[in-house]
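Protein 1 of 2
SEQ + STRUCT:
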Amino acid sequence: MNYEDEAIREDVKEGATWLDIVIPDGWAHLIDASILRMESLNDCIFGQLFGSDLYDDILYSPGPEGIMWTQTHGFSVYGREFWLEEIEKRL
């Protein structure tokens, strides 16, 4: 695994931990892994859990915080395999 993959894995862990707090009853069982596509606003982790409108609100919030937050929490087009690992840990 290279440095970039390790950084993405850490970002995904941050996002999974955030989801553990936001959805304490469990979020992993709400994800349909068969349609998980990180490049889709509807089929990504965030889209499946909250819908694309909320994702758009965060992504396009004023200033750099929105897009940076999504990236540092693994909600980007990368990391599908790492999300699948985090989901598996929680099922």
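Protein 2 of 2
SEQ + STRUCT:
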Amino acid sequence: MMKNRLIAERDIISAAKVLCAKTGTLSGVSALVGYTTTADGEIFALGIFISHYVGPATPARDMQDKIGNYLTGFSRHRVSNVNGKLSPDE
């Protein structure tokens, strides 16, 4: 279950609440495919395939989880250095 894999990190929005995906693992191959809603409310589709690794799938899954969390917390806005409010990138 994805919510068991994606644990909230303190500095970002948890993908566990908004990432809908299917996982798959074979020997030396790990995949995560689905969609998520970003911090701005956009829907992103994602497909993360990691192959040709040797050993357990845990490092590959951890990387997929980090990417999923990053995309979920992604914003097209940046924080202004002047007043700390969000302002659009130009």
